Structures are given as C-alpha cells and as structure tokens.
Amino acid sequence: MMRKRMTDKPVLIGGAAALALVVAVGGYFVLTPDDRETAQVEAAHSEGDGDTHEGEAGHEGEEAREGFVALDAEQIQASNITVVALGRGGGTETQLSGRVEPMVDSRAAVAAAVGGRVERVLVAPGQSVRAGQALASLVSGDAATFRADADSAAAGAEAARLAYQRNRNLADQGIVARQEVEASRAQMLSAEAATRAARARSAAAGSPNASGRLSVSSPISGVVTSVQVGPGGFVPQGGVVAEVTNPARVELVFNAPPALAAQARVGSPLRVTGPTGEFDAVVSGVAAGAGGDSGATLIRARPTGGGLPPTGSAVTGAIVTGDAAGALTVPSDAVQTVEGQTVVFVHVAGGFQATPVLAGRQAGGRTEILRGLDGDERIAGTGAFLLKAELAKGEAEHGH
C-alpha cells in the first residue's frame, strides 16, 4: 500500500536500507521496500489495463464497421434469413395497359331446355347459389314425352335381351337355328342403343319425372343477378330463366403490340400495378390478332398471390421478354433502402455487409442489378429487411 508522509527535515538514505524518495507537491513521498514492490505490481497491472482498453477499442471499431451486421450461422438460421446466389436474366421490358375482366365461365344465362309452364321460382336476385342448385321448377308436355320415350325404349331393350337369352338356350339344345340367335342378338343391341339415345334426350331436357316436371339448375356457383320468369308464366325452349355471375372468377386482360405475340409465353411473369398496389401475375393465355381491327395481341393473366381489384379496374403491367445473359437479378425482397441508398446485404465472414447497388427493372418478383455486384456474391434474400432493421438499431445505439 502506498503511504503519504509529510516532513520538514531531510531524509537520510542509508546503504542497503535505502528508501526511494519521491518529490511531491507540498512535501515528500517516502516508499518503503514493500511499498515499492506493490507499486511495481500496480504499474504492471496498469499497463495490462491499457492493453485491454486498446483491444476493446479495436473490437468496437470492428463492430462499428459501416454497414456491417454481425451474425453467425446459427443466428442466420434462427432468423429465417435465406442466403441465395445471384441469378442471370433480364431482357426487354414492355409496359402494357389492361383491365380486370370477368372470365368466360364467370357468367351464365340459364335457359330452359324445353318449353313449359313455370311452377315455382326457387331463387331471388342477390342470392348465392352453388353449381347444380335448382333455380326454378317447370311442368312441360315435351319433357313428359321425352321421359315416356326413355321408359319405352328401356322396356323394348329388356324384351330384346330376354328374347336373345331364350334363343341362345334353345340353340344349345338344338331346337333353334344359330341364325335366329344372331338375329335376336342384333335386335338386342339395337334396342339398347335406342334406350341410351332416349335417356340422353330426357337428361338434356332436365331429367323430368313421369309427369313432365323438371328443374332448371345453375351450371356454376355464384350470385343470382336477375330472374326473368315468375310462377305461372310460360318459358319457351331456350328462354332465359335467370342469370348467375361468379364475382371471384376474374382475370387480367392486356392489350399488347402485335409483335409481342411471338415473344410472350404462357407462364411468363408480369409485374402489375393496380388501385390496390403492386402484385405479381403470370401469363395464362396469348391470343394473336384478337384485338380486332388494330391487330393487337390480347394477353390474359392471373395473379400468383391474393385476389384482384374489382371488375373493371384499370391496371398496368410490365412483362419481360427475351434474354440478356449478362444481366444480374436478385429476389426483390433482397433489395432494401438504407439512408437513401439502395443496397443488398452480401454474405461475408461473420455476417452481412450492406453493399450499395444500382437497381434496374423489376418483374416476376426479381430485380435487375445494373451495378454494384460482380455476380459471384451470395446475398440475403428472404428476411433481408431484418438486417436493415438491425443495422438501424445499431446506428441508433451508437448515436447514444
């Protein structure tokens, strides 16, 4: 321990028992041999602390490396951050204008297959129906005839079958000639064919019962938009009974230049912008020259994720056609904005480094990188936003 002693007299330093004399403000510090040893230990410890502080400063400098987020492999896996390689792609991007339109099978004008009197109306406008559900009940004389013909044909076919079996048994006993057996078999086959035809006509008429009563059913699921008949009214053959629309059956329809018909393919990705924001879609059909006198190509597409905007909404789309082998692409989720700069997080030893890039076109969930990457890097894909948040958090703590 260090002792502090004040004196007005000189201190004698003697031979082997000499003491270290240190001049201090207002007097002298006198160190005993034990004190000197303690002071040396403390000085050595002080020097060690200095090295430690320097090491900590160096470590802090490493952590404070600009744009670096330190994560080990276990932390990356726990955070569900995917590490992906860069892709190759690109091509020519074409802007398209279009609308949200009902699909061809989204509307049904349900008509009566045979003329008849309306006995009951089973639905009302605005009511939801499923495919096969009855909309109205009719009574039809023509339908009764179809049912009677089917029943008669079935009876004739049964009689022909029994005659054939009888002749075959008699032929086995040698009573009937084989020629008669073959003739009865032909009559049986003809009667069965007539039965199938009669039953098909009856089914096409709505499968009436023996009294000629039948139901007019909806061929699709949807909502009844109008009812054209009432109880007691007469519906002619082909007359519309009701209209049904399925509002969920909608698609994107774009007008494209005629030259695009040879380049667009079913399955090509589209990036669509509508009233509800941006979403991805995929081409489901390409019809060259379907645009009428203009000769424009119609491109039909469906969304790859959620639902579409309401029917009639105007949308714009961007489709990439052709190939540019030198273009680099990354998942659009990998591109983040940090302090006004567009960056991707490149996987390096010990974590991820935010690397500024110049982003180009975007389509099909991928973004073209024009500058900033070599092509050999591996980057953070899904979950890159977590790295952006961690980087912002570290900068906030460093500011404090």
Automatic annotation (TrEMBL):
This is Cobalt/zinc/cadmium efflux RND transporter, membrane fusion protein, CzcB family. Residues 108-244 form the CusB-like barrel-sandwich hybrid domain. SUPFAM superfamilies: HlyD-like secretion proteins. Residues 39-63 are annotated as: Disordered. One of its GO terms (cellular component) is membrane. NCBIfam families: RND_mfp. Keywords: Transport. Belongs to the membrane fusion protein (MFP) (TC 8.A.1) family. PANTHER family: CATION EFFLUX SYSTEM PROTEIN CUSB, SLR6042 PROTEIN. Pfam families: BSH_CusB, CzcB_C. InterPro entries: BSH_CusB (IPR058790), CzcB_C (IPR058649), MFP_Cation_Efflux (IPR051909), RND_pump_MFP (IPR006143). One of its GO terms (molecular function) is transmembrane transporter activity. Residues 328-388 form the CzcB-like C-terminal circularly permuted SH3-like domain. GO terms for biological process: copper ion export; plasma membrane copper ion transport.
